[in-house]
Amino acid sequence: MIGVEEVSADPYLPYDGGGDTIPLHELSGRGSNYAMSNGGGGGGASSSTHLLDLLEEPIPGVGTYDDFHTIDWVREKCKDRERHRKINSKKKESAWEFTKSLYDAWSGWLVVTLTGLASGALAGLIDIAADWLNDLKEGVCLSAMWFNHEQCCWGSNETTFAERDKCPQWKTWAELILGQAEGPGSYIMNYFMFTFWALSFAFLAVSLVKVFAPYACGSGIPEIKTILSGFIIRGYLGKWTLLIKTVTLVLAVASGLSLGKEGPLVHVACCCGNIFSYLFPKYSKNEAKKREVLSAASAAGVSVAFGAPIGGVLFSLEEVSYYFPLKTLWRSFFAALVAAFVLRSINPFGNSRLVLFYVEYHTPWYLFELFPFILLGVFGGLWGAFFIRANIAWCRRRKSTRFGKYPVLEVITVAAITAIVAFPNPYTRQNTSELIKELFTDCGPLESSQLCQYRSQMNGSQAYPQGSDATTTPGVYSAMWQLSLALVFKIIMTIFTFGLKVPSGLFIPSMAIGAIAGRIVGIAVEQLAYYHHDWFLFREWCEVGADCITPGLYAMVGAAACLGGVTRMTVSLVVIVFELTGGLEYIVPLMAAVMTSKWVGDAFGREGIYEAHIRLNGYPFLDAKEEFTHTTLAREVMRPRRSDPPLAVLTQDDMTLAELQAIISETNYNGFPVIVSKESQRLVGFALRRDITIAIENTRRKQEGIMLNSRIYFTQHAPTLPADSPRPLKLRSILDMSPFTVTDHTPMEIVVDIFRKLGLRQCLVTHNGRLLGVITKKDILRHMAQMANQDPESIMFN
User: Fold this and answer.
1) Is the pLDDT of residue 566 over 70?
2) What is the spatial distance between Cα 183 and Cα 91, in angstroms, rounded to a whole number?
3) String of b and e for 151-169 (b: at least 16 CB within 10 Å)?
């Protein structure tokens, strides 16, 4: 028999009676609420004809969902409207009811305020702890253990301008252990300690994830997108996941792996939103309302990750949210504001900015420069397409081979290779955020970076010479070589790192790859302009000796292009980058590069990395960006097919409890259509499996006289029964009287649109009012896979 959407989601797990425990609290005394029915025997109303009318009182547990199930958005919205009407009708009765209605109205703002406060505080904590642990790999501050390298040398009087990071208070491990700062012995000692700490942090991170919270691994954004589309993954946004993700994120970033903390910060913020929503019944009892809080929380997450509150709101709207009403837009804006305010007051980087790599450029850009900017966009699109294919192929291999059974070993291996290869190159040794900061920063009199050694004679004490001509020195050439090697290293390691069983974000590594490529292009264009300033390209606007080209700007554009190529974000990405860098006049170059990278990436495949991971994991996610272009009809997709057994249905008033239980035990469907009779096949409504089992269990507990041969009915009035028949059971209150139906000739593109826009779980197919079959979300996903020539079973959640 065919019925609605198999029960659990690992194609789908065998049904074991429910995921979470059902709170069957005592029902208050029913008194005379039994409906009396004429037994038909003329002997008056015997006790056995008392009926439990479930309409009188809601059954605890009905309307909740099992793990790995999709919520019914329409039902949740109706529930919320009903709750709202109830509160409004009562608020004039007393001052207490009026206070309750005010509390209900304000609870939305309250929950996003709490979420913003928690997200900002946790982000500040993670930033400070990760910086400290990162510097611990190289040495320790003797005057105050809790200071990182930069803070340690702040108060020192011995620092010089050229060597601002050297001070007696900060000791490298070689100085502490061997007592010498220079020489091959100290280099090997520092190398060993760097690798030792990196492996320790990585091992600790993966062990904590494996033992305490398996859901804390990865970036979290693919799962959050799926949860926001209405899927339920219990525990994914829970207390343990929050705690372990916060701790292991610090360790993973400090281990030097090629990952960022930005994606996981969105997961952390959503965990905060989920936990706080349980304090307010309006959100804890309604899955659709809870998702509004999670949309606002993801905006707060990006707000603290990049110090970009408006970018965060746009990210939530463009990238993660499925249902985004105007009210959620305002609340997301407020949550992002609160989170950014908290982070700013913590000031984790000590530069009064929300991010480490805040920069300001002062030279304008010229029309000719759009050409290299667009080239960077092409590079970003190609890198994005290559990365998605390579990373998905590697993750698929990890899932299908024995390699995936040893997550700890894999993390240790990748961490060891990363640390050993990274240490000799100063650009890969340093924290990725610091690398991006160095690449973004413009060369000025206060820069001691190798990239800025434009005059061989210039030492730190000499003033910046007037008309500083940009002749390169061996320092810049060696820096270019090291950057090129760093680019190759980052590209290879990021493919193998994203998807490890540690918290790993993709924003920072992608930006680093783009920033390296951009800086190399920027320096090349700058040299071109210096040596060939008489070319017609440069003659108009670039005077000899003037700073016309800003290599840091190219790094910024490259970073945006590569991130856009991987995630396929557009509007939110441009806003995030200009909030990040304060470069309002560079919006046009950014837009050009990001748009180009999206077009180039889309030429190789429409989905971004998050959609690719959703598909890899088989989550039931209908992407709103995908177009359905096939000309199939509803009857070609619905089940049962011709070769299948008939549809599993319930009749409205002539089934016994035994028959109902037999259908439930023999099938593993999520719900059953209710029809008038087997002969007429006219549709009455739809009853969910979970609701039926809860209602039967509840009734048996509360009432005597319910037998296996008790009649089940879904009608308003009880059917006429013989006098000696056992008490019947009324299940009308759990019946959905208005299930969504389409006719068998409805085009599938309309059905897919209905599923996307209304968030349906299933839709019934009728012909002239008679029930023919059913289409579920998974039937649609299977159909789409078949149309794309993929194996439909391989794409379902496993």
Assistant:
1) yes
2) 79
3) bbbeeeeebeeeeeeebeb
Q: Before 372, cis peptide (omega within 30)?
A: no
Given this model, what pLDDT does residue 34 score? Answer: 33
CA proximity to 272, closest of 245, 296, 237, 244: 237
User: What is the CA 9 to chain-centroid distance, rounded?
Assistant: 19
Lowest mean pLDDT among 80-94, 121-135, 609-623, 698-712: 698-712
Task: Judge whether 525 and 282 are in contact, CB under 8 Å.
Answer: no
Helix, strand, or coil (residue 621): coil
Pairing verdict, β 669-675 and 729-730 = unpaired
- Taking residue 93's Cβ as centre, other Cβ atoms within 10 Å add up to 9
Distance between the two ends of the chain, CA-based, in angstroms? 23
Q: Helix or strand or coil: residue 11?
A: coil
Under a CB-based contact definition with an 8 Å cutoff, are residues 647 and 3 in contact? Answer: yes
507-546 in b/e burial notation, b at 16+ Cβ within 10 A?
A: bbbbbbbbbbbbbbbbbebbbebbeebeeebbeeebeeee
Tokens matching residue 76: 């949740």
Helix (H, G, I), strand (E, B), or coil: what is residue 37? coil
- Distance (Å, whole) CA 490 – CA 509: 7
Predicted local distance difference test score (pLDDT) of residue 591: 94
- Give 668-723 pLDDT, tens digit per residue: 888 999 999 888 889 999 999 989 999 888 888 887 777 888 888 888 888 888 88
Residue 226 pLDDT > 80: yes
Rounded to whole angstroms, the Cα distance separating 85 from 64 reads: 21
Long-range contacts of 446-453 (CB under 8 A, 24+ apart): 448/161, 448/162, 448/163, 448/164, 450/426, 450/475, 450/476, 450/478, 450/479, 451/476, 451/479, 451/519, 451/523, 451/551, 453/479
**Residues 149, 154, 158, 160: what is their CA dihedral angle, to the nearest 10 degrees?**
90
- Write down the pLDDT at residue 270: 96
Structure token pair of residue 789: 């020539």
The closest of 737, 726, 738, 736 to 52, measured between CA atoms, is 726
Q: For the chain, what is the mean pLDDT?
A: 83
User: Is 620 buried (19+), middle (13-18) or exposed (0-12) by CB count in 10 A?
Assistant: buried
The single residue listed with the structure tokens 């939103």 is 273
Determine the average pLDDT of the residues in 767-782. Answer: 90
Contact between 134 and 254 (Cβ < 8 Å): yes
- Decide: helix, strand or coil at residue 683: strand
| Rounded Cα–Cα distance for residues 740 and 748 (Å) | 15
**Which residues, in sequence order, are CB contacts of 158 under 8 Å at separation 6+?**
167, 168
pLDDT tens for residues 23-56? 333 333 333 333 333 333 333 333 333 333 433 4
